[in-house]
Amino acid sequence: MKALIDNLAVARKKSKNLLGQMLPSEVADRIMAGEITKPVSFECATVFFSNIVGFSDIAAEANSIDIVNLLNDLYKYFDTIIDNHDVYKVETVGSQYMVVSGIPKRNGENHVSEIADMALTLMSGIYSTFKVRNLDIKVELRIGIHSGPTVAGVVGTKAPRYCLFGDTVNTAARMESSGSAMRIQVSEPTYELLRKTGQYNFEIRGKIPVKGKGHMTTYWLTGKTGFISPLPKLEDFPLAN
């Protein structure tokens, strides 16, 4: 009987660890306890999207193993950086990487600074440190950030996922897709929140057409007071046509 109990305990611990890798720990704990998880609304959070510029062309010219190695190396590198910030990695889809702050743990207005600091660190690392194995290429990122209300909840049972829903997510994705290589594009709500801190540097991009949103005023996040790691200069990376 003791052996059976021990085996059950081990199996339960493995299940909890696996679930904890797929979901936020507090959400995983509630599921393991048999509680029903309901969608939760968050008044304001900051959502980050990044993508590899020209990834389709890179994938077409390289072999599949090198592409898998590229993404694995890149995401492992990203993961080591986000561990130093109060953020949650929502998912990776192909070359796209999605992170949020302020969800599932509320952190006041710190969410916008956590994402901005993370974005600057990631951009600096890609610009000055990250190397690609076996491929004679230099990875360039396109980053987009937006802040606003969001709903989060668990979707699915066999392979549950913690997903974000709402216009904030869509707009953050548009900030990425309408951006440009080695630039961090932020929406006006994100800009206003960061501007209040008095710590960040920007260049205004102006009004641009954003799919599904009409025209929006956006900004390039270019640095932060006291941030000494090297960052790409905008003039070295002209806007995409």
What does this entry look like structurally?
39% of the residues lie in helices and 30% in strands. It is α+β, with helices and mostly antiparallel strands and 241 residues long. The protein has two domains: 1-36; 38-236, Alpha-Beta Plaits (2-Layer Sandwich), CATH 3.30.70.1230. Strands 1, 2, 3, 4, 5, 6, 7 and 8 form an eight-stranded mixed beta sheet that branches. Helix 1 packs antiparallel against helix 2 (25-32). The chain is globular and about 55 Å long. It starts with a helix and ends in a 17-residue tail after the last strand.
Rg from C-alpha positions?
20 Å
> Between the first and last Cα atoms, what is the distance in angstroms?
70 Å
Q: Strand-and-helix sequence, N→C? A: HHEHHEEHEEHEHEE
- Domain tally: 2
Give the fraction of residues assigned to helices: 25-40%
Class from secondary-structure proportions: alpha+beta
Proportion in β-strands? 25-35%
CATH topology type of the largest domain: Alpha-Beta Plaits
Major sheet: 8 strands, mixed
The CATH class of the largest domain is: Alpha Beta
Family: Belongs to the adenylyl cyclase class-4/guanylyl cyclase family.
Protein name: Retinal guanylyl cyclase 2
Membrane topology: Single-pass membrane protein
InterPro entries: A/G_cyclase, A/G_cyclase_CS, Cyclic_nucleotide_synthase, Nucleotide_cyclase
Concise account of the structure shown:
The chain has about 240 residues and is an alpha+beta fold. It is about 40% helix and about 30% strand. The protein folds into 2 domains: about 35 residues; about 200 residues, Alpha-Beta Plaits.
